[in-house]
Structures are given as structure tokens and as C-alpha cells.
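Exam revision sheet. Question 4 asks you to relate a sequence to its structure. Input first:
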Amino acid sequence: MKKVSTTVLLFILAALTATAQEILTLDKAVETGLSNNFGINIARNSLQIAGNNATAGNAGMLPKIDAGAGYDYGISNARVTNISGTEINNPKAVANLVTAGINLNWTLFDGLKMFITYDKLKKLEEIGDLNVKISIENTLAAIIISYYDIIRQEKVTEIMKEQVEISGFRLELARLKYETGSGSELEFLKASVERNADVANLSSQNTVFGNSLATLNELMARDVTARFRVKDTILLHYRLDYDSLRTGMREANRNLLLCNRNLEVSGLSMKAARAAQWPLLGLTAGLNYLNSGSEASLTNYNRNFGAVIGVTASVNIFNGLNLQRDYRNAKITGSTTELEKKQLENQLDTYLLKIFNEYLNQLQLITFERENVAMARKNMDIAKESFQVGAISSLQLREIQKNLLDADTRLIDAEFRTKLTETALLLLSGKLLK
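Answer key, C-alpha cells:
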């Protein structure tokens, strides 16, 4: 009796501790996770880089302007004779040079490659945005599943606590019968062993439950040791429609949209490779200053200041057929991306159908298992009364107890798996993230 009382006391203390813990709603878990999750923030940083790169200047559409200045000073042993016979002989001739200038280089035409490059950079920014949304969707799905897994594990824990109480009831009766001589020691020992086994199972389940809390804390990027409570109901959306899900998947699935963007980038790469075969036309302009003086020259002083402007043109005539090779490779890459898109569509169709069939099956199982739980619980109530008056054996009571445990567990698993498949279907169809 002392062991039973101690166990009950521990459960009461655990319940009081749980009451004081934070009640974490799914919405709050999602809000915290989407704000703090490391993977999402890494994807957001990558998007910022892609946005910074998607500029006209990075595409080569803007001019390049450079400014520079310099000063040179030197001493040399100079001996100079010009054609007229004038001679300079200075072992310490000083020379100095001052230069300054600002120059502009601007590509005016490159076969429209700069515009193609700009479009490509914008597409890469869109790909970065899709990667962020994919990371958000995957994190959201993981938080939802983790949250409802905690509900499942908590319910399983409660079921096992009930099993310990039933085993304690059975052990107490076995002890009374043994002490009064109406029962055997073997029956008492058997009841003790089975109750201890139930307590051990409960201890293991408490570990599983604690680990499920740590998993959700990790997804929310907060202290993994933080304790909290969750709502006790697994909410389901009755019922999802296959045709609607498939239409949504073809229109809004983020991975499929990402594949489309990659296909567009491949098309732009082909255009860029073709544009590289066109002539280049550029504009150059500058404003330069020069001031030089030298004791080692017949011209002692020289100063120039003025502007210059010009046009350049160039065309590649032959470079080992590399331009043609680049175009052919870009074309093959585009064909490969198109095949990858078709492959992804086929895979998504397969995943959707399989998961939807599993979803329907789990919905049916929920109905069956709820009926089984109701019957198993009623059977347990009758069995406890019958066992008290000796109408059934301890072995029969244990079997009925096991049937109740199995029925309760199957119902919780069916509810959880329904939520699991429901979340996967919403993720596939692009409906999980509004």
C-alpha cells in the first residue's frame, strides 16, 4: 500500500507542477518559430544578398567611372645632346611628374546581354524568395507535427498512468486476498511484477514526452529545457478534397514554382550565350591633367589639361568555338531543367495520391477506434467490478486491461497520423502557408 500511495503522490506533484507551466498555443509556437528559427533566418539572409545583387549596375548596364592621381619625383645622372649640338650634363638632374584624371567607360551595346543578365538577377532574387517560403513552410509543418506529437505523447502518458492505477487496484486486491488466505502468493507476486512493469513503461513514456518538448523548443530556437503545456486536442480539418488539393499543388507548390524559375533562368542563360556572339560597342570619356618638369630634358616644363571622348567597337571572330560550345551547353541545361520539372510533377502527383489515400484510411480508423475505445472502457468498468467479487480471474482482468491500452493507443495514433497526412497534403498543395 505504501508503494501505491507514493506513486499517487508523485503523480499529484507532477500535476501541480504542470499547472504552473506556460500553456503554449499552436499559434504562439508558430509565431515564435517563424520569427526565431535559424534555417528561416539563414534563408532570409540569402534573399537579402540576392536582392542586393539584382541591380542594373551589377548587370553591366551602368557606366564605370574611375578617378586617379599620382606624383613622381626622381634624381638622375643625365647627359643629353640634341641634333643641334646643345648638351645637358647634370649628375643630379631632378624630374617630377604630377598626373590626375577621371575616366568613364560605358558599354552601349553587347547584344542585349546586360538586359538579359539583369532579368536573370531578378529571377535569382525570386528564387531566393521562394527558398525563404519553402523554409518557412517546412518549418511550419515541422512545428505543427511536433506540437501535435506532444499532445499524442501526453495522452499516451495519461493512458499509462491509468494503467498504473488499474494495476495498483489489482495488486491491492491480490494483497488482501493473499493476507486473508483466499488468494495465492503466486497471484500476488504476479500482480506486483505486472504493476512494476507498468510503472517502468510509464517512466519510459515520460522520457519520450520530455524529448518531444525539447524537439519543439529546438524548432522555435529557444531554450530546449523550457517546460510548457499544450492544448489537449488534435484538431482536424474534415474533409480535404483531392481535386482541389491537386489543382492547388500545380498552381502553388513552392518546389514546383522554384523549378519553373530555374527553367526561366536556363532560358535566359541560353539568350546570354547567344548574345555573347554579337559585337561590343562602348563609350569612353575622360578629363586628364598632366604637369611635368625635368632637368634631364631639353623641355624643362610641360603641362596638359583637357577632355577626351571616344567610341570603341570589338567583335570576336574566333575563340576556339567556345561561344558555340557555351550556347550548346546552355541549351542542354535548359532541356535538363525541363525534364526535372516533369519528373517533379510526376513525383508530386504520386506523393499526393499516396498521402491522400493514407489520409482517408486514417479518417476511417478514427471512427472505428473511437467505437473500440468506448467498448473497451465499458468492458474495463465491468471487469473491475467482476474481479472484486471473484467473477473473473486476474489473468482475464489483465487481458481486458491490455485491450483498453491498445484501443486507446490506436485511437491516439490514428488521430495523430491523420494530422500528419493532413499537414503533408496542405504542404504539397501550397495551402499550408497562407
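Marking note for examiners. The chain has a mean pLDDT of 88.
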